[in-house]
């Protein structure tokens, strides 16, 4: 403490030479709200704060933006409400609180934000009603005056009660040698007992019981010198058991059970020194097993099995140090294989396969550290190939092909190493006829793109740049006649725009565009009918 004060004196001397910036803040109505000084952007020295009516409400001292020195709060009538002292933002030394009439209500000392020594509290009439004594780790009570003025605890011996605002007793406790010793009871607002038990030298001891507001036991627990020791039970409001097990030295030990509201066992397993150990079984509400497996020092180990609600096996595989490791298998309810593959440190690794309920393959491919990585092939329920391609770190790369359920090619093309469509792509209908083809660059259409009618004849020819129309675009009729020509620049019409008459082949309309706007009419609408 002495060295810290010396350091503060040295720093204060240094910062005193720094430039002070006077600061005043005002409310919208023009009344001063606060005033003080900044040094290097931090509050420094004494600051005063006012309310909107102009009444001083707080005076505080700062050192580099932290409370340091006296801090005083005021009642609206100007009387001191709270006064205390801080050392680098932590309460330190004496603290007092007063009523608006100037009567002392509270007094005690802090050391680095912790109460220490004797603390005393007074009623508004000036009568002492509570005295506490704080040490480094505990506090004791040696005086208490009840709300009716009766002294019920003196020299650390007697009883102490607390109350709800309505006047109903909230809790009662016996004291001896300045600490709780004897019967303790707490109550609901309706006067019914909420919790009861015995303290010994300030620590819970023996059987403690907690009740539901509507009546009936909520929880029972046994303590030895403040530590849970013995059977612990919790109950639902209707009296059915919820949880039951034993504590030894504050740690769960032996078999513990959890139950559902209907009385059905939900979880059963053993603890050794608060760690799950041995076989644990989890149940559905119908009594069927949900999952089961072993724990070692609180983490899953060995083979674990999971089941469907109706009792059939769902999945099975090994754990090591709480993580899935090794081969895992999954099944449908009828016992047919659903999926299988390996885990390494809880992440999929190597070859994985899955099947449809009819037994036909669904997907087959590889993982690396939990990410799709390597060749993958997928199938429809009828056994026809659905897709094939390569993944790298959960991104499609290289050549990919997608198929219709009839086996015809749907779409094929390539991806770059960033998982974006890149290069030539072709799209087909279910009859195998080419519908479109063109190139992508970083997932955006680029360059020449062609579109076709189902009969194979050209439908549209266009040029793309960065995913936008750029250059000449030509549209055709099913009979192969030119229907429209248009020039674009970055998705806007720019240049000629011609619509042809399907019968004569002459322009029905011929316009010149500049940056999306008509700049010239060469042939008005309908000009190609003759």
Give a description of the structure:
This protein is 3% helix and 66% strand. It is an all-beta fold and 530 residues long. It has a 46-stranded antiparallel β-sheet that branches. The model is unreliable at 1-16 (pLDDT under 50).
List the helices and strands and how they pair.
Layout: H1 2-16, E1 20-26, E2 32-39, E3 42-50, E4 56-63, E5 66-74, E6 80-87, E7 90-98, E8 104-111, E9 114-122, E10 128-134, E11 139-145, E12 151-154, E13 157-163, E14 169-176, E15 179-187, E16 193-200, E17 203-211, E18 217-224, E19 227-228, E20 230-235, E21 241-248, E22 251-259, E23 265-272, E24 275-283, E25 289-296, E26 299-307, E27 313-320, E28 323-324, E29 326-331, E30 337-344, E31 347-355, E32 361-368, E33 371-379, E34 385-392, E35 395-403, E36 409-415, E37 421-428, E38 434-441, E39 444-452, E40 458-465, E41 468-469, E42 471-476, E43 482-489, E44 492-500, E45 507-514, E46 517-523
Antiparallel strand pairs: 1-2, 2-3, 3-4, 4-5, 5-6, 6-7, 7-8, 8-9, 9-10, 10-11, 11-12, 12-13, 13-14, 14-15, 15-16, 16-17, 17-18, 18-19, 18-20, 20-21, 21-22, 22-23, 23-24, 24-25, 25-26, 26-27, 27-28, 27-29, 29-30, 30-31, 31-32, 32-33, 33-34, 34-35, 35-36, 36-37, 37-38, 38-39, 39-40, 40-41, ...
